[in-house]
Each structure stands twice: as C-alpha cells, then as structure tokens.
Design brief:
The structure holds three protein chains of three kinds. Chain A is mainly α. Chain A is about 70% helix and about 5% strand. Chain A has helices spanning about 5, 20-45, 50-60, 65-90, 100-115, 120-150, 155-175, 205-225, 230-240, 240-245, 250-275, 290-300, 305-325, 335-355, and strands spanning about 10-15, 355-360. Chain A has a two-stranded antiparallel ribbon. Chain A starts with a helix and ends in an 8-residue tail after the last strand. In chain A, about 50% of the residues are buried. Chain C folds into two domains: about 10-235, 3-Layer(aba) Sandwich (Rossmann fold), CATH 3.40.50.300; about 255-505, P-loop containing nucleotide triphosphate hydrolases (Rossmann fold, 3-Layer(aba) Sandwich). Chain C is built from 17 helices and 20 strands. Chain C has helices at about 45-55, 75-80, 100-105, 115-125, 140-155, 170-185, 200-205, 230-235, 295-300, 330-335, 345-350, 360-365, 380-390, 405-420, 435-450, 465-470, 495-500; strands at about 10-15, 20-30, 35-40, 60-65, 70, 85, 160-165, 190-195, 210-215, 215-220, 255-265, 270-280, 285-290, 310-315, 320-325, 340-345, 425-430, 455-460, 475-480, 480-485. In chain C, the strands form four sheets. Chain C has a six-stranded mixed beta sheet, sandwiched between helices. In chain C, helix 12 (about 360-365) packs across helix 13 and helix 12 (about 360-365) packs parallel to helix 14. The longest helix of chain C has 16 residues, at about 170-185. The radius of gyration of chain C is 24 Å and the shape is globular. The chains are: A mainly alpha, B mainly alpha, C alpha/beta. The interface of A and C includes residues 15, 239 and 249 of A.
Chain lengths: ~375, ~325, ~500
Amino acid sequence: MNKKQHTPLFHVSKRGELPWYLSWGIRVGAVALALLVSALVTNLLTGENPVKVFVTIWKGSFGSARKMWVLGQNVAILLCVALAVTPAFRMRCWNLGGDGQMLVGCLATAACMILLGDKLPNWLLIALMVVCSMLAGAVWALIPAAFKAKYNTNETLFTLMMNYIATQLVAFFIIVWEVPKGAGKIGIINQQTNAGWLPQIGPSKYLLNIIIVAVLTVLMYLYLNYSKHGYEISVVGESERTARYVGIKVGKVILRTMLLSGAICGLAGMLLVGGTDHTLTTTITASRGFTAVMVSWLAKFNPIWMVLTSFLLVFLSKGGSEVASGFGLSTSFGDILTGIILFFILGSEFFINYKINFRKSGEKEA
Amino acid sequence: MFDLISFIPRAIMQGIPLLYGSTGETLTEKSGNLNLGIPGIMYAGAISGVVGAFFYEQSGGTSGFLYVAIPLVCSLLGSLLMGLLYCFLTVTLRANQNVTGLALTTFGVGLGNFFGGSLIKLAGAEVPAIVLSNTSRYFSATLPGADKLGWFGKLFMSYGFLAYMAVLIALAASYLLKRTRVGLHLRAVGESPTTADAAGINVSKYKYVSTCAGSVVAGLGGLYYIMDYTKGIWSSDAFGDRGWLAIALVIFTIWRPNVGVLASFLFGGLYILHMYIPSGMNLAVKELYKMAPYVVTIVVLVISSMRNKRENQPPASLGLAYFREDR
Amino acid sequence: MDNKIPAVTMRDITKRFGSTLANDKVWLDIYRGEILALLGENGSGKTTLMNMLSGIYFPDEGEIQIDGKDVVIRSPKDAFDLGVGMIHQHFKLVDVLTAAENIVLGLPGKLDLKAAAQKIREICDAYGFEVDPDQKVYDMSVSQKQTVEIVKVLYRGADILILDEPTAVLTPQEIDKLFTVLRNMRDDGKAIVIITHKMHEVEALSDRVAILRHGQFIGDMPTKKTNAQEMTNMMVGHAVTLNIDRPEPENPKPRIEVKGLTVRSMDGILKLDDVSFTAYSGEILGIAGISGCGQKELLEAIAGLQPVEAGSISYIDDNGGREELIGKDPLSIQQMGVALSFVPEDRLGMGLVGNMDIGNNMMLRSYRSGRGIFTNRKAPYKLAHQMVDFLEIATPSVETPVRRLSGGNVQKVLVGREIANAPSVLLTAYAVRGLDINSSYLIYDTINAQKMRGVAVIYVGEDLDVLLELADRILVLCGGKVSGIVPGRGAKKRDVGLMMTKLGGKSDE
C-alpha cells in the first residue's frame, strides 16, 4: 500500500475552547519568544550581550523617576485612544480613524487656548476645551459612521482618509496661528499665562492625565460589559440580523457608538495638548490611533487587559529607543521591536483557535 | 498662467510610487487580502534597495549593470519577505488582516527609518549622509533625446526606466486580471474562496502568490521614490503617507490597475497642486489643497457604495480569513 | 452485494466537528447507472459525508475507493480529477462573474470564453437546459443558478454526480425537468447521488436508497423493495406513531387579522400575493407549503421585520381593540404592549447570538427592562437556569456559548426564551427542524401549553404529518398565495399536498 505518501502529513481543524490558563500560556510563551528574538536582533546589530539589552530596555522605562512618569503618561494617552476605538471594534466597525479624531481634538483644544486664552477665566476655558475637543472628535467619527449606517460605506477606508484630512486641517491652522510669522510652527501656547493648561496635581504634570484615564478605563469596562448600550453593541457586532430581530436600531447604535468613539479620541487629544504638550503639530498624535488598534485587539477588546497591552507596547518602544540611542542609532528601533512582538502574538492566536492533527503512518491499516 | 508642461511631468513623477503601490495593493486585494501593510512594505522595499546600493557604492563598484541590478534585487527581496510574512500570518495562521497590516506598517516604517538613520554608523562608513548619487544616476536616466524634443520629450520621455516599468506592470496586471485564467481564478478567490475552493482552485496558493507579487510591485514604488525622485537621498519619514494614498487609489480606481495609470498621475497632480495654484502670500491655503486626494477618494468611496453596482464593490471576501472547514 | 464494482466505496468514514460526531464509521457504495437517494433527517450527516467525497472536508478516519482503487481526496480538485462533481445546496457560484466564467472556473489551460460558450451551448442542447453564457450570476433566478451548477459539473465530464437537496428551491415543473435530466444521465451510465429527506422524491426518482441516522449508516436497499413506512422507520429509528396532543381550542377569539398582504423581495420578486387570514387565540394555525413559498416573509411581516407593499395586519386585543402592525418595527410593537414572540428559522443567525452564553441570550428580549443605564443580569440568568431545568437543555452551564450546544438544545434555548415573556402571539418557523424525536415532542408539548394559555400560535412546518396532527387549522401557501385553509382535524394529507402544488398546476402525490 502506498497510502503513506498519499495521506496529508497533517491537517488543521478548529478546536474547542481551551482552558484559560492554556490560552494565556500560549500568549505568554509567544511574548517570551518574541523578546528572545528581539534580543537576538539587537545583539546582531549592536553586538551587546542580550542580558544587557534587556537591562537597557528596562532602563528606558524605569531608569529614572522622570522616565517612569513619561512612561505613565504615554501609556495613559495610548490607553485613552484604545479605550475610544474599542466600542466600535466590539461592534465590528473598524474605526482606523483614531488618529484623525484625536488630531481634531488637539486642534479644537489648541483653538480654544489660542483664541480665548486671555478672554475667559481658566476653569471656563478648560471646560470649553473639554467640550470642544470631544465635539470635534465626535464629528470626525460621525461623518464616516453616517455613511456606513446609510449606505454601508466601508468604514475602514473612510476613517483612514479622514486621518489625512485632519492632518491637513491642522497644517492649515498651524500656518494661520504660527508664532512667529513664517516659522511654520506654533510653539508653546500661552507660555506666559499658562491659560488652558490643565492644573498640575501631585508631584508631576502627568498625574492628572493618568488619573483621568484610569477612571475612564473603569467606566468603559462597566459601559461595555454591564450597560444596556454595551449589550446592544455586542449584539450588533455579533449579528445585525439578530439585533434587528429584537428591535435594536442598528443604524442608531452605529452612530451612537462611533460618536462615543470619536468623542473619547477628541478627549485624548485634549489631554495631550492641554495636559502635557501645550502645542500643536501635525505629528503630535504619533500614530497612536493605529497603535491603539493593536492595543485593543491584543487585549481582546477588554479595557482592563488593555492596561497591560498598552503598557507592553509603550515599554517596548521606549526600550527600543533607549537601546538605539545608547549606540547612536535611530530611535525607530523601538518600532521594529514592536513589530516583532506583534507578529508573534498575532501568530500565537492560531494555536489557540486551531489544532494541528498529525497523521501517524500505519494508522488504521486493518 | 498654469504651466502644464512643467506640471504634468512632476505630477507623473509623484504618481509613479502611487501607481506601484496601488497596482500591488490591487493584486493583493483581488485575492481577498486587505493588506494595510503596504505603506510599511514600500518603506521596506525602499530601504532594502538603499542598503544594497549603499554597500555597492561604498565598495567603489563601477559596473553600471550592478548599480541597477543590486538595488533592484535587494528591493525585490526585501518586499518579498514582507509579503511572505503577511501571508504566513494571515493565510496560514489566519490572523486578523487589519491588525497584521498595521503591525507590518509599524515594522516596515521602523525598519526604513532605523536603517536609513543608522546605516552609516552600522557600516562604519565615513560619509555624512546617505547620498546614492552614482546609483541614482542610472535610475533617473531619461530616454535618449528627451531634452531635444521640446514639450514632447518633456512630457513623455523625461523619466527613469522604473517609471515606464510602473505603467507596463499596471497594464500587464490589468490584462492578467481581466483576460487570463489566472486572473479569473484570482478574482474568484477574492470574491468567494469557498466557491473557488470547490472549483479546485488552491486558495492559499493564490493568496500567497498574489499578495507576495503585490508586495514586490509595491516595494518598487519605494525604490523609485528614493533612487529616482529624490535622486538617491534618504531622509527620515520622507516617503510620508504615500502608502496610504496608494491604498486610497485602489478604491478610487475601483480595483482596476489600467485606470490606475491615469488616476495615479491625477493623484500625483493633486498631491502637488498646491505648488502650482497661485495663492499669493497665503501659505495656509496650500495646506488645504493637499487634502484634495483624500477628499476625492472619500467621494468616490461614498458614490460607489451609494450606486451599489455589483462590479464596483470591493472583492466580497476582502479582509476575511478563509478556513475550508468553517461551518 | 452484487457483481458490479461500485464506482465509489466509502468505508468506516468518521468526521468530527469539535465535540459533535457528524459521521460515525459510515459505509456507503455508489454504483454507475444508478440513482442513489441518500436519505436522512436534517443533521443526520448526509451532506457531511458527501462533502468528504467531494473534497470539501477531509475525513478524520476511514477510506474511500473509486472504481476499486484507494484514493485520497484532499481537495475539490482531487475530486474533480476522479470524476466526482457535487452540486451544493448553497450554490458555489461567484456572483460578479458570468455563467461561462463560473463554469470554466478552476480548469487548466488558456482562457477562451468563446470556446467555452460553444461547449456550454452543446451541453445545453443535449439535455434541454437554457443558459446564457454571458449572463452575470447576480442577475439569475435560483433555478437558473442551479442549472449553471449542473452544467458546470457536466462541463468537467464528471460521471459521479452528487446533488444536495436540489429540489428545495424549485417549482414542480422545474423539478420534473430536473428529474428527466437526471434519468437521462443515469441511462448514460453516470452514478448519481441525490441527498434528500423527501420521501416522495426517493420513490419517484431513485433506484436505490441509503439511510443515515445520527451520523451512522443504517442500511441500503433497492427502492422498489421498500416503502415509505419502512424508510421512515429506518430514518427516525423506530416506528413513528405520531401521537401529538391536540386539545380543543377554548374560547377562540380573533387575535391577528391579515388582509391583502403583499410583499416583494429586495429584487422585486413577488413573495406574498394578497394573503388574507385570521389567527385566533387558543388555536394553532399551521402554515403548509413547499419551502420558499412566502412562509418566511409572512412571519417576518407580522413580526415587523419585513417591509410590506400593501395590505394590513391587525392585532386584536382581548377587549376587541385593534392595532395596526404594519410599519412598526419589533421595538414599537413591543412598546405598544403586543406580546409577540417569534421563533425564526435561522436560529443562530437571527434568533440567538451564537457567541453569547445562554444567560446573555435570555437577555436579548429583556435587557431593556428596568431603569438606569445598566442591564439587570440576575433575572436572565435565573431564567436561564429555569429553562435548563424545565426544557432539559443539555449544557455544561448557563455560561456556555450557545454556539457550542447541539441543534436541539439551541432550539430549546430559543423557544424557552420566546415563551418566557408570556406571549399572546407565538410565531414559529420550522420549530423542530433537525431535532431528535424526544426534543421534537418536548417542543410540541410546549407549543400546546402555550395554546392552552390562550396564545394565538402560527406554526410554519415542513412535515405534513406533524401539521395534520398538531394544527387546529392549516393554511396552505403556494407561490405566495393562499391556496386554501382547512381544518386540521380530519384533513387528508393528499388533499393538503395537492393544495401545496395547486397553483403550480401539478402534484407529485
């Protein structure tokens, strides 16, 4: 019998649910493997021994009190954008426009600070910044959402394009408001008066942002898992037909959820401009809208896990930069490490959802 | 007065990287893979070529053939590897395409900027910046007689060989998709992998081959930009958002590479329109003109979804992983 | 068995999907020059078995021989190379391609659509099909699509043809035409397998019948030597003495009054044509008809899910007050105080959310209750526990995603939820499809209990025997029109069967 060479070596089938410890074991294994590969790549490029590489990566985030605060701030802002896009993702609506929605939030905040900085009491100005930034983000998300709800226009590509329109809009206003004329940039807004700067509480100007985002994380967790809206979002995401069957207005849920998504992105922009950066550039968001997609997906759209995944990504990118700058190399090294770890985690999902059945030769000869 | 004779060649040169990117992405999307990693792949294609050329120039090579062949082969290999990575994750391991694509873009752009910024240091070379003028001379050589034939030469002959190749590849891709059996099978895979599978078409193979071919083509766009458009000078993030614009172009051309030829020139024109529109002292308005390609893409996206004509829709299985035994 | 060598021999074929055993050591022989009917209830593993022969699935265990030679069929291409072609129930056609493009899909060689069109015309002429090679599939009717599928298989020169429930979507004339073609092909020496659960098709068409039950091979025999009763017994496992309770309706009052209801599908096809009837409280109104005759549209129109072209649907409460239901969505119907429950045909795609657990699925109807922005999660989980006990739902826990339950248990979850909110109208579509006998009876009893509560039940069924024993009145739909309403008690199967095909001008009975 020549069956052996005819039978496929293995075939893949879907597997039942894995116990949580196994599935998380696979993920942790993937991260460990990715770190190993990262160390190897670093070693190849810099010649430093892998253990020292990890020490340097660690130092990038925890090397000093200031670095830890910066880490916290970066995690907070990234987490905030990830929290924003998550409701849309739960609805299977691929909002890749987090960047643009955040950017218009930045723009609205800066506009308030520049135009009204010396005309309003500070508390009113800040309140206005919050409202305007959220409104701007919401509008930016609502435009693609409206077309999706009405004509089922592809939201992935629409939101993507909205990012660049936002970038150009910001570029336009930067030139309108440039200081000094012809500089092509805005510089620190209200440096003398500090009008519209969020108040510093505690030891660092970053603490307020971190607290706000921590509260937001809990609220978002409750909203998604325990509220009526959150339930509707899940039903629409799983099956639009089921949603219609129980009387959920799908279009309305899409609009409402994208509005929320955009508003929180706008708020993230406000935290960035009003809280820490106090300026406006076209690259101020640092592509966080895209990184947020990965943060959210890696955490299986669970806000609590997202704390961990956003920390992981920020940690790596800071560590990568630290390693690179230590050797006078480009700080984009962090992006390479981020890429590597993402590939491993993406790949590991396969082993959680599928199993590979190897065929034993000589099986069932009878 | 609007200077068309100088505008059009510049628009075309801007359009060529977009044409490579969109042809590549169209081939990819036709197989049902929405590869949002194209911007990263274009960076990877560019930097691979740069690395190859850099080392050859450093070694003091003189062969004109190798000045072209080495960067070209390096670029092809670099983008091929990126394509293989994407396929392995999304086709073999069935990972989420959106997330994989974004990760690939992060990775590819990081790769480009890292090596672009560190190559000199890593190689221990004694030059202040990456300027591949020798290589660029071969890549940006125009057709003979371009400067003698007046406006005709300027409009049609003043480009490097990669520009002509872009048009040829786009037309060939169009022919492949429309008129050949391979193209028919590829369209079927993207529309309905179940059907294609039942018809005996190897879905995974088609997805792999078309996505990798698409990546290679897209990577050439990056190479063209560095070697021809910027005359061999690498600067960080210079390639910018052209990768995303290439993806937009795919929608704009409703998945037709032959339409892409003119559309990419149009987009190239829109991209540089702000330099040609007299806006007086008001520099800010120029920034608004730069929105044009994106706004136009959105309008096309909305119109095609409103008209709901079957031929103009994205491939039906775009973005979805295929598993035969799914029930 | 006899002296012929089987075209296909399947031995000990086993296939699992997760924890469900779809095929369990199945044996099957298929011969040339013969039409084999593969008979079994829904979910008995017929389609799975044939999918393994056509390369869609790969068996976990077992072996397949073609013409006496061991073969391994890894893909549909392997199957084609061995001469096996399958016409799936859900057509495997690419909508945006033309008929000719679909037909040549997957074949090697240079693409020459003109030559292909020529060959297609020849096949059509030989068998009397009508196919326009240049027509796009999305412009085709269901039967045109099926024709393309058959031509596709013939074009490839397949001589072992498998048809998966080919008649489900056809009119009686189209069925006749199909059967003629199939007989021609058999006489041509081809091996033909038709998957079905309709007894009269087995009797009218097949030479031999093989029966599956719960994924196991029960037996095969020449069709001439058996009869419907024996086949049914083998199919369901024991002699069926349908003995469904049918209590007399108590104090029936008009509850739902439908007048002149006309519905068109999205592509403009008339689905319901001037349908009028009244459903009474405390009564089961059975809806009979071959599938696709407007049953789905009728129920969805009442439930507020289907845009209506003309007509009215009134809900009449106990005091005689009337409410118009047309133009209302499910939410506004609910808010009007009309307790309308609906068990749709597509359980996991419409009635339930497969990835959510039982408790969360119970919540689908009740999540809006209570003040505040948060859902009340205690009540639905309590209800889930009650339903698991009451309907004997086999599940590890109420936190198990319903997708992981077996078909019968999924249906129990759905029915349980729908009766839990004390409906005054209960719509059910194919409530026992794919369920085993015990679960089916549990569902009948549950529906009867609702009837005794005074609920107006509209029961769409496909099994006439059940309708005749369960329903108080039977409304027969044919091609979107009402071809008659008869009392369930004393109705003859033959008469109802005739009405089901009346407007088609032809009956198979």
